Fold this protein.
Amino acid sequence: MRGKRPAEEGNVLICALCTILVISLIGANVLYNCTTRFNVASSQVRSWKESLFAAEAGGDIAYAEVRKTVLDPTRAFNAWTNSGALHVSPVTTFGGNNLVTSTAVDLFYYDPITGNPWYRARSKGTAPVNGLRRTGMDDRMGAGTRGDSLLRKIDFNTDHFISTYGPNGDGVGKALVDVPNPQITRRIEQIMAPVTPFEAAIKCTGSFYGLGSAAQVDSYNSKNGPYYFAANNPADPNFKDSRSGSVLIGTPVAEVNGMLYGNISTNGGTVRPSQYITGVIDNNVPFTVPPYKMPTDMPPPETSPTSVSSTVTITPPTAGTPAVPTYYLLSELSGKLIINPVGTAETYVAIHVTNDMTAHINVKPKVHVKIFVDGNIDVKGRDIDNETGLAANLQYYCISPPDGGSQFIHIAPPGNFAATFYAPGADVVLNGNPDLTGAIVCKTFYGNGNTSWHYDRALDNEGDAVDYRIASYVEDIR
């Protein structure tokens, strides 16, 4: 047998080396791509998502503080840097990956109808970027290709946002600001809108009895003119506004008396469809109403009067606005209080009664009044003398008593009235057969008369803020 010649052995060696080289190149390319993809997937993508989580955490913190302006006003924005209408949070670091968030909240708008403030929160979330200093796998944006890293705003050495747009994003103060470590920052903006209290004719969290068997609850919209009954005439142009006399009950209820032109909801009740209820019945709607606290943004009170035990007429020194009404602080309100407008101007008045209220209130046309009561209200229907005819122009707010405390609103005959009552801690007793325009929010409700109750749909956007909701959410993608 002849052995291999040296030339043949050399060819085999060269082929083997070439094969090894090709396999090595393939392996190196695979390793390179895997390393790049692992770097992006495990570090940059994670940081990209975590930075948004951090920004949203800052937004949640801001939302909680804004809600405190209503639910716990003395503690709102504590430990923040406050300058007028601007509130800046401390920088918060949290989580195992040392995420960082901060938020600036500004009061940027007052509702011209209610005077309620709207807030804007701009939150910034930052996550560290570990791994190799590479921008990503594919930055191409041409036809037929997909860039997957251009949107990842990675700050390897300097903060790109400040250098391009300035610290506030308005192009002012642009500068090169070093970052201690590679990071990704994302920014979100949320608009927080006030929630107003009067969404139904009657809303109570506790027991409900009423109204009378001959009672009637319907609705209208005062923006379209005075009330008239239209709930049985589909051809009437105001028919669409006539069947929103809804009732919300936070406990199990078996039946509701009277004719209800609207919806009804209960929490575990057994209300059944009938000819007396025209709207939707839902027996599985739990809800709560937070306690009401005296607003802390009132202007300084007027020096006179400070108590009303007889007939007193007030004409405010200025017409005021919904956001800044003329404010009176009364230790007693048991006589008759007449409130005049300032000339022909729409006039806004706020009254805080630090005791029980048993007064006759006479509201003249063009006057808008909010009455805050620390104690109980015990009046006749005729004592609620609202000459404007609009429930929104006479609003009663009962400051919730401390835990375990009791509070009541008693309205006895005779007399018809137009007003609203927001009293989440009060037991309401309504007797007689008044013709009533307005809304009531209370703890318990008892009504044994044959009331004609008209809910004004214009109340949807009326009243002091009782909470806040997120009305808008956007991300600043710069």
About this structure: The longest helix spans residues 6-71.
